[in-house]
Every structure is written in structure tokens, then in C-alpha cells.
Amino acid sequence: MRLVLQRVSNANVVIEGKEVAKIGKGLLVLVGIGKDTNEEEMKFLAEKVINLRIFQDDAGKMNLSILDVKGEILLVSQFTLYADCRKGRRPSYTDAASPDEAKKMYERFVEILKEIYPYKVESGIFQAMMDVTLCNAGPVTIILDGEELRKK
Asked: Domains in the chain, ordered, with CATH?
């Protein structure tokens, strides 16, 4: 599983001209599901998302988590996080989970976050063509790769 976290002032998802999700201050999390993604990894990464200290404290240091600032979370599925561009000019997605499996895992990840995070959690719609708008605050962008984190 791969996640791209963007600290935002606000973000939203529009599908076919209709806003389906919107948050204020918080995190936009792009979610890629790999072939080897499992429940344990999803739980580990969900805890990491809500406890990473990437929000500023009163001294201006990134010392607070989204939990500390009671921020909002917007999850957006993005299989392209598994693009392999090592060969040729067309990315390969062989390490991404199949659409059916990825949908189940993505929906489960949304559930996990809603279970453990007491504030607002919104999500886009899996496999929909989405327009995602955000105002990156900082900017702060963090990449979490479950496979890389497991190696350490």
C-alpha cells in the first residue's frame, strides 16, 4: 500500500460536476493498493496517518498530529501510485491490486480510518473520474510506502 499525504487548508472531490466530498484543514490522502496489501498493513498505515506530527505547533515546528489539531481527512483512491516507469514510456501497473480486490481493500481502509479517527473522514468514489482540488498548506507532502516501512 502506498499513500501520499498532503497537508491541506481545504480539499474537495467533484465527479461529473457534483461535489461528493469536501474537507477543511487536514489531510488529503491519495491511496494506492498493491497486490500484497493486507489488513495488518492497512491498520499500521492508518495509525501512522493519524499520528504523524506534520502540523505546526505554536512555535511553528511540525510537532502536532492531525489528531492533535482535530483536522479532517479526505481519502482518494489512486492506482497510479503503483506506476512502474523503469522501462519504456508507458507505465506498467503490474504491482497494483486488481480492480475488484483494490476496491475491497480501499473501502476497508476507509472503514479502518473511520473506526479509529474520531473526526471527519471523507472519501472519493473508487474508479470514478474525479476532479480533486486542494490547497496544499506549507506545502507539506509525505509519501508512505507500506512495503518500505515493513523492511525497517
From this structure: 2-151 (3.50.80.10)
